[in-house]
Specification:
The complex is a heterotrimer of chains A (about 350), B (about 350) and C (about 325).
Chain A lengths: L13 H5 L2 H19 L6 H6 L2 H18 L7 H17 L4 H25 L5 H20 L4 E2 L7 H4 L1 E2 L2 E2 H19 L1 H11 L1 H6 L4 H27 L1 E2 L7 H11 L12 H19 L4 H23 L9 H7 L8
Antiparallel strand pairs in A: 1-4, 2-3
Helix pairs in contact in A: 2-14, 4-9, 4-12, 4-13, 4-14, 5-6, 5-7, 5-12, 6-7, 6-12, 9-10, 13-14
Chain B lengths: L9 H11 L3 H17 L6 H26 L7 H18 L5 H25 L4 H20 L11 H8 L1 E2 L2 E2 H19 L1 H11 L1 H6 L4 H27 L10 H11 L11 H17 L10 H30 L3
Antiparallel strand pairs in B: 1-2
Helix pairs in contact in B: 1-14, 2-13, 2-14, 3-8, 3-11, 3-12, 3-13, 4-5, 4-6, 4-11, 5-6, 5-11, 7-11, 8-9, 9-11, 12-13
Chain C lengths: L1 H23 L1 E5 L6 H16 L3 E5 L6 H13 L4 E4 L8 H9 L3 E5 L11 E3 L3 H15 L4 E7 L5 H14 L7 E8 L4 H14 L3 E6 L2 H13 L7 E4 L3 H9 L5 E4 L2 H16 L10 E3 L5 E3 L1 E2 L5 E4 L4 E4 L3 H4 L4
Parallel strand pairs in C: 1-2, 1-3, 3-4, 4-5, 5-14, 6-7, 6-8, 8-9
Antiparallel strand pairs in C: 10-15, 11-12, 13-14
């Protein structure tokens, strides 16, 4: 018999621990902060550093469920339209006489329903890819928003509503607190519950997951509903930040959200990823925008910088891992290659 | 007693011929839609309007062909809008500096710019294994930024373009608008390419099962680079045609246009996960989108309803296609019943 | 060693003081989006006006014409402690909370061109009276077709505050007995996208065979309509007018598709905005009706009441571009 040891456990080592995607993102985050402070004396101001988070944290609520969606191997480009529709309905409802807390609840209900409709379509018509389903609903949901509000704005919310996006508890902005709670919840859901394991399993191999007893339909509907719910959160905080809403809010959010998730190390091939990466990516991109804005970089240049950062980070990380993170290769191939399971085949 | 020993019915014959044509549902849907629009506005199915429709859809068709190849390999290209802008702006700026430049050279210049961008993307995806969505997202931002910088924030207006340049898109060949001629030509070339050449069939293979393709000796990386390069060339071509058609080059040309192109492809049955897609379906998907863009302003509904109607039509088209496919499958199964 | 260290610290201190005092006199303009030649000219005019007064100008524009992007930019400007923010708004209401934050931080806010609601600004700098713009457009259409016929409007996005305000005036104006033989067929939205504007223009022509004039109060729309009319050989049968850049419309004015159209000088508008803002920061004006200030080489201006409940200062009447003067202006902007 061969002297080679076949082991499924990865050898633990400090080197391996630090060469993970998330640590390299931390490095990038630190680098961004160092560069930013070097560029502008206004950057290292605790108040404005913390306060500027509200400009990118409303989008961040969508990053959490989008991580689940992409790990599943799907995609959802209708999220921005869901935000617009639920914001519009909330505003119209409030202006029609609903008490504000009820209108806010309505916003969450509508957004969750939008998500559920996506899930329903995906489950009932499995021939359709997630792209085509969410592409259609992306157009439909925002279309409904236009039908409702036409060319008007809706707002005049009670003064306390602005606390959501602009208020703080002590030195910490309210939105940051809410986001931290949501991030923790999603992190636990993904990594510490059986639901999370099911999501990974389905992303790795949908057929195998189904045959091993996982109710794939329920998982897809649940993830879609969660996406809808978080879009409602985004709608609440975005509307609070603007004090009013129109059918054309949150345009382009879906692309930024997907960029943050993928930068966070979640492969669109599905089946792999950790919640920490996308969360770090949110702050990297957010603070990069903020820091460069403090020295009034032109929008053209900023576009080039962000684009290059996206590509460079992934390039660097790929050179470390020899390719975007793929689901574990089959055991047989590893054994045949005479290598341990964690090295590239 | 097997069912197929019975005398073939007319219905059976129609269904059987429909089985082979997977996109039948889409075709029927388009026919019904066109009829509905015609009822709403008798000016829809007029020669003048159809000419407009075809001219406006030609550029979409050219791009859809390139995108189809990318999607078949399991990738995606979000940067085509930016490439269109860059190629268009570059050729327009050159045309402004050299007013007597041969329009063919302008087209070649645009295609060269597109090729450069596509090659870089291909390199990132094939050689450096960057995920297509990230590579093209990053390139999209970079190329858009470069376009703004190159143009110094200004536009190239109609009076700065030579007649030869704008005639590229408004001129006719054998009585048919140039854009339509180019689009038809490209469709035919690509139909032949994906169906009857080795390279074309191999592209399906690498989308269908990358590992198997690798093992069976298909030069996966080269082909992967090739599809993005082709997409780049077509985007560059589209850029020049676009700028010529509208007689204006802006930095924000075609912002977000990639979504239209992807919609045309998926509507036409191109699988987003790779390995499947037919040029016939693509043609139908493109035509459906073209009809929508053309007819929505015609049907005299409040403009605030346009987007909603567009979404519902797309969803209905997609679901109809699914329903027809399921019906075909069911009938096919029944045929094989013992 | 110690001496040079002390010297270095002193230089640093002086530089910091100089920097802060320099920056304390920074004036920012936030335009709607980047890559827009009209915007570039306006910001250039603003910069000229600010630098004429020996102050520092900051020019910002987001890469997409959204309110969300402008909110982020304004937050960055607040962190830089600028003296004044001149906003060309992408949304009338959505910038209110962030602009109020700026005002709380002792930054003066005034709007230019595309206004924000009165609660978000001290006053507005308007290119021309909203009423005057609308009335001039309708009058032009009336004159082009001899007082009788069908017209249509091709606008920007359905959310554009300037265009919506002008269209509202046009609709009110059309109710006057003078315009009883003019019929407004439709208001179409081209979303300031070339391809959509072309489709909408073609749709208007196909839906309304008796259409005589297309009024397009946006530069992308008017150029698109001009191209469509030209390509379809309808010059002289259907007219185009509205608001557009002379560079974009030179071809169509010269070939007759557009007999004449209107605009104003964006460079002058930016310049006026600069002087108005500095006067505001220096306390020379507060934004109430009757305040007067001098805008460099443009002369003296007075603040008046504006139609949205706030106050504004107006640059002047719209400027008419026709075949006689287009050659002079097409290379300017």
């Amino acid at each position: 018999m061969s002297e080679r040891e076949i082991s499924i456990d990865r050898p633990r080592s400090l080197k391996r621990f630090f060469f993970q995607w998330e640590w390299l993102l931390v490095l990038i985050f630190v680098a961004v902060n160092i560069i930013n402070s070097g560029l502008s004396p206004y950057y290292l101001n605790f108040g404005s550093l913390i306060g500027s988070t509200n400009s990118f944290l409303d989008m961040a609520f969508l990053v959490l469920p989008m991580t689940f969606v992409i790990i599943l191997g799907n995609i959802d480009i209708s999220v921005a339209s869901t935000v617009a529709l639920s914001a519009v309905i909330m505003a119209v409802g409030f202006n029609a006489g609903l008490p504000m807390p009820l209108a806010m609840l309505l916003c969450l209900v509508v957004s969750t329903l939008c998500g559920l409709f996506n899930g329903f379509l995906m489950v009932k018509f499995k021939e359709l890819s997630a792209v085509i389903v969410t592409l259609s609903t992306m157009i439909i949901y925002r279309g409904i928003a236009y039908v409702i509000l036409e060319d008007q704005a809706a707002g005049h919310f009670p003064p306390w509503f602005s606390f959501l996006a602009w208020g703080s508890i002590g030195p910490v902005p309210f939105i940051l607190i809410v986001f931290a709670v949501c991030a923790l919840a999603f992190g636990l859901l993904l990594h510490k519950t059986s639901f999370g394991r099911k999501v990974f399993a389905m992303g790795n191999n949908l057929t195998a997951a189904r045959y091993s007893g996982i109710k794939t339909d329920s998982v897809i509907i649940a993830v879609s509903a969660l996406t809808g719910l978080m879009a409602g959160f985004t709608a609440l905080f975005l509307t609070s930040r603007m004090g009013s809403t129109r059918p054309n809010v949150a345009l382009g959010y879906e692309l930024s959200v997907i960029a943050m998730v993928v930068l966070g190390g979640v492969s669109t091939a599905g089946g792999a990823g950790r919640i920490g990466g996308p969360i770090l990516a949110i702050f990297i991109i957010g603070y990069l925008n903020y820091g460069l804005g403090l020295v009034n970089i032109k929008a053209n240049v900023l576009l080039i910088i962000i684009g290059s950062l996206l590509i460079l980070s992934v390039l660097v990380l790929n050179l470390r891992f020899g390719g975007h993170r793929r689901p574990a290769p089959p055991i047989a191939r590893m054994i045949a290659a005479g290598k341990a399971p964690d090295e590239k085949a | 007693m097997s069912a197929d020993t019975k005398t073939p019915t007319t219905r059976g014959r129609i269904v059987r011929s429909g089985e082979g044509f997977r996109e039948l549902g889409l075709l029927v849907f388009i026919a019904i839609l066109a009829a509905a629009f015609q009822i709403r506005n008798h000016n829809f199915l007029t020669i003048a309007n159809i000419k407009d429709l075809l001219t406006n859809t030609a550029i979409l068709g050219i791009l859809a062909v390139g995108m189809m190849l990318v999607l078949i390999t399991g990738g995606i290209d979000l940067s085509i809008g930016a490439t269109i802008a860059l190629a268009g702006m570059t050729s327009a700026l050159t045309g402004m500096a050299l007013p007597h430049i041969n329009p063919l050279l302008s087209i070649l210049e645009g295609m060269a710019v597109g090729l450069a961008v596509g090659s870089v993307i291909g390199l990132l995806v094939a050689r450096f294994k960057v995920l297509p969505i990230i590579a093209t997202l990053g390139i999209m931002n970079i190329v858009r930024g470069v376009t703004y910088i190159e143009s110094k924030g200004a536009w190239v207006s109609s009076y700065q373009m030579s007649k030869a340049f704008t005639d590229i898109s408004t001129g006719t060949t054998f009585g048919v608008n140039n854009l339509v001629v180019i689009a038809v030509f490209i469709f035919i070339v690509f139909w032949y390419f994906v169906n009857h050449t080795k390279t074309g069939r191999r592209i399906y293979a690498i989308g269908s099962n990358p590992e198997a393709a690798d093992i069976s000796g298909i030069p996966r990386r080269k082909l992967l680079w090739l599809v993005y390069a082709i997409m780049g060339v077509l985007s560059g071509l589209a850029g020049v045609l676009w700028v010529s058609k509208f007689a204006s080059a802006q930095g924000d040309t075609a912002l977000g246009y990639e979504l239209n192109v992807i919609a045309a492809c998926v509507l036409g049955g191109v699988s987003i996960s790779g390995g499947a897609g037919k040029v016939s379906g693509l043609l139908l998907g493109t035509i459906l989108l073209g009809i929508l863009n053309n007819a929505l302003p015609l049907i005299n509904v409040s403009p605030f309803w346009q987007q909603f109607i567009q979404g519902i039509v797309i969803l209905a088209a997609v679901l109809t296609n699914v329903a027809v496919k399921r019906n075909n499958q069911r009938l096919a199964l029944r045929k094989r019943a013992i | 060693m110690r001496k040079s260290f002390v010297k270095a610290v002193m230089v640093l201190v002086v530089m910091t003081i100089a920097a802060t005092s320099l920056v304390a006199q920074s004036y920012a303009i936030v335009f709607k989006n980047t890559g827009n030649p009209y915007g570039e000219k306006q910001m250039a005019g603003f910069k000229a006006g600010i630098e004429e007064q020996k102050l520092t100008a900051i020019l910002r524009a987001p890469d997409a014409p959204t309110a969300e992007a402008q909110i982020a930019i304004i937050q960055q400007l607040i962190a830089q402690k600028v003296a004044g923010i001149c906003i060309v708004g992408n949304d009338f209401d959505a910038l209110q909370p962030v602009l109020q934050q700026a005002m709380k931080a002792n930054i003066k806010v005034w709007s230019l061109d595309s206004s924000v609601n009165p609660a978000s600004r001290a006053f507005h700098v308007n290119q021309s009276s909203t009423d005057l713009i609308g009335r001039t457009e309708v009058q032009a259409a009336y004159d082009m077709i001899g007082g009788k016929g069908e017209i249509a409007i091709l606008s920007a996005t359905s959310q554009a505050s300037n265009q919506n305000a002008w269209i509202e005036v046009m609709k009110q104006e059309l109710k006057l007995p003078k315009y009883k033989d003019i019929k407004l067929d439709k208001v179409a939205y081209g979303d300031d996208l070339r391809d959509k504007s072309v489709s909408e223009a073609q749709g208007l022509l196909a839906s309304f065979p008796n259409l005589k004039v297309i009024i397009a109060p946006t530069t992308v729309g008017i150029a698109a309509a001009g191209k469509v009319i030209t390509d379809k050989g309808l010059i002289g049968k259907v007219f185009v007018t509205g608001l557009g850049l002379p560079s974009e419309m030179a071809t169509y004015i010269e070939n007759g598709a557009c007999p004449y159209m209107f605009l104003w000088n964006p460079i002058d508008l930016g310049y006026l905005g600069a002087y108005a803002g500095v006067a505001l920061v220096n306390g020379k004006i507060t934004g109430k009706v009757g305040d007067k200030f001098t805008a460099g080489k443009l002369g003296a201006y007075t603040i008046t009441k504006s139609g949205d409940g706030g106050t504004e200062v107006i640059l002047g009447p719209p400027f008419k571009f026709d075949a006689k003067n287009i050659a002079d202006w097409k290379s300017v902007y």
